[in-house]
């Protein structure tokens, strides 16, 4: 693409964004998507060579990220739209690929060390007549404490978390993790591509705080506690906003999620 053609696209995009922000319409948004589809194609080509997903699927996922960027772009800040949009496109594709992954991949060496650690801990427990601390375990295995911490963390992340795990918020009554999940059948926004597009359209219609909570919890995979800390509200409030938001989305989309 020549410099003049690239500049023409940039100017046209800004004009369309100005018009869209004054009077949002599906037609205008689709025009902006078409003007910037090259950004999505480039990312889709890049990730296609690093996974088993087809180009068309990655292209559709990337378009969802582009739509999110269109909805959040602020012209007054003076940023180039392409620079603003690429992280959204890339993030949406990465999130999709992570959701499609069957398991957490752990280096083979760490898997071996996890098995070795089980034997080492049992032996130390017998010798010391108590559970060994991290320094004692790492020394017996001939590794640093930092590496042992990484092995432990990988093992923990590989295990499924029980919905009966207790969680609490300062000043609030303790509850279980399962009680904070609005629907135990619901994992994340892992929907068919057409539904993901409809979902994105519905999200932008929600009240701002409710939309932010849903995006942090389901699109960015933050825990409810992390979401609460980021937004300066309690975990219980986050839970309520999640339930409220899902109900609103069901009404807007006219279907069960």
Report on this model:
The chain contains twelve helices and two strands, in the order H-H-H-H-H-H-H-H-E-E-H-H-H-H. With 257 residues, it is mainly alpha-helical. It has a two-stranded antiparallel ribbon with strand order 1-2.
Instruction: Note the gap between the termini.
Output: 42 Å
The pLDDT mean sits at 76
Report the radius of gyration as a whole number of Å: 23 Å
Q: Major β-sheet, in short?
A: 2 strands, antiparallel
Number of helices: 12
Percentage of residues in strands: under 5%
Query: What's the SSE pattern?
Result: HHHHHHHHEEHHHH
Uncertain runs are 159-193
Helix amount: 55-70%
User: How would the global form be characterised?
Assistant: elongated
Strand order of the largest sheet: 1-2
- The total beta strand count reads 2
Structural class: mainly alpha
Domain RNA polymerase sigma-70: 57-70
Protein name: RNA polymerase sigma factor SigF
Pfam families: Sigma70_r2 (PF04542), Sigma70_r3 (PF04539), Sigma70_r4 (PF04545)
Keywords: DNA-binding, Sigma factor, Transcription, Transcription regulation
């Amino acid at each position: 693409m020549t410099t003049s053609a690239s500049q023409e696209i940039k100017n046209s995009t800004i004009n369309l964004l100005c018009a869209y922000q004054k009077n949002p319409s599906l037609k205008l948004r689709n025009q902006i998507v078409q003007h910037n589809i090259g950004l999505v194609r480039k990312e889709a080509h890049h990730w296609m060579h690093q996974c088993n997903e087809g180009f068309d699927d990655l292209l559709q996922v990337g378009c969802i990220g582009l739509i999110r960027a269109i909805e959040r772009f602020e012209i007054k800040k003076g940023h180039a739209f392409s620079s603003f949009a690429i992280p959204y496109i890339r993030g949406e594709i990465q999130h999709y690929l992570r959701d499609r992954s069957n398991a957490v991949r752990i280096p083979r060496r760490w898997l071996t060390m996890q098995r070795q650690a089980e034997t080492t801990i049992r032996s130390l427990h017998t010798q010391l007549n108590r559970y060994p601390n991290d320094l004692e375990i790492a020394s017996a295995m001939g590794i640093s404490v930092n590496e042992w911490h990484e092995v432990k963390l990988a093992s923990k992340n590989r295990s499924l978390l029980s919905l009966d795990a207790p969680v609490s918020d300062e000043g609030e009554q303790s509850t279980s993790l399962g009680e904070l999940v609005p629907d135990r059948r619901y994992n994340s926004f892992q929907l068919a591509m057409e539904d993901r597009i409809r979902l994105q359209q519905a999200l932008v219609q929600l009240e701002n705080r409710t939309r932010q909570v849903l995006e942090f919890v389901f699109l960015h995979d933050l825990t409810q506690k992390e979401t609460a800390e980021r937004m300066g509200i309690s975990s219980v409030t986050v839970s309520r906003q999640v339930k409220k938001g899902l109900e609103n989305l069901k009404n807007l989309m006219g279907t069960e999620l």
